[in-house]
Amino acid sequence: MFKIILLVFSFNPVFGYFTIPGRCPDNVDLQEHFRLADFYGKWYQAYHYSSDGQQLNNCSTIELMTRPSGIYVNQSRVDLGLFHRFNIGKLDIPSKIEDASKLDLIFVFKNAPRRLKTRKYPFRIMATNYNYYATVYTCQYSQLIDKHAIYVWILSRNPTLNAVSKELAIKPLQQIGVDTATLVKDDRSQCTPKYYEDVHVEPTTFRFPVPI
Length: 212
Ligand SMILES: *[C@@H]1O[C@H](CO)[C@@H](O)[C@H](O)[C@H]1NC(C)=O
Ligand SMILES: *[C@@H]1O[C@H](CO)[C@@H](O)[C@H](O)[C@H]1NC(C)=O
Known about the structure:
Elements: H1 2-17, E1 20-21, H2 36-39, E2 41-50, E3 57-67, E4 70-79, E5 83-92, E6 102-108, E7 118-128, E8 133-142, E9 147-156, H3 163-170, E10 184-185, E11 195-200
Parallel strand pairs: 5-11
Antiparallel strand pairs: 1-9, 2-3, 2-9, 2-10, 3-4, 4-5, 5-6, 6-7, 7-8, 8-9
Bound molecules: 2-acetamido-2-deoxy-beta-D-glucopyranose (2 copies).
One 2-acetamido-2-deoxy-beta-D-glucopyranose (NAG) is lined by residues 55-58, 79-81, 187, 189-190.
Signal peptide: 1-16
GO cellular component, one term: cytoplasm
Keywords: Disulfide bond, Signal
């Protein structure tokens, strides 16, 4: 029953969200010898790419932090120029050292129905030099329509990314079929919104709560 409701609910958006034919790209070269410890702290989203072309928010940042139960990623953003919001995911750290850049993010929504409580998404580090730039992507595949969706973060340690770092950051994108001309530069002109929401909300970069 629930499945049917969910399907009806999500059928339309599925077509808008999953736009690239086939499965997620595989055999993608990720950052070699990735060192999570050097990746810590705050990153600004300098550019992003969303395969469905939606721009849902501005002023996005990503910050890694340690809690007694693990390492978490706080992704914050400004919605509609008015609301400062954030979502927190737990990093699922691969056990094999050679897979160090193959991270996943796990979101837990305590009040959601059982099937939607825990959601896991890839969070793959394609390239980084730790001090200036990082290129991260996620991909979701829909079996229902045999298409996938990609989101790319071009992250910068400083609010603006220098030209050399940008070149290095965008280089790996051809591997996942992202045309760098379609990257959107984040607007940081209005990053002091009126309202701060102090609760963890749904991420906008991973929009499908369950595999479809
Ligand atoms: C997440 O980051 C935002 C922006 O830096 C901050 O306002 C918020 O307090 C952080 N949330 C937590 C739980 O650390
Ligand atoms: C992002 O910022 C631009 C420019 O200020 C604004 O036009 C747009 O509405 C903002 N988008 C969102 C989702 O807040």
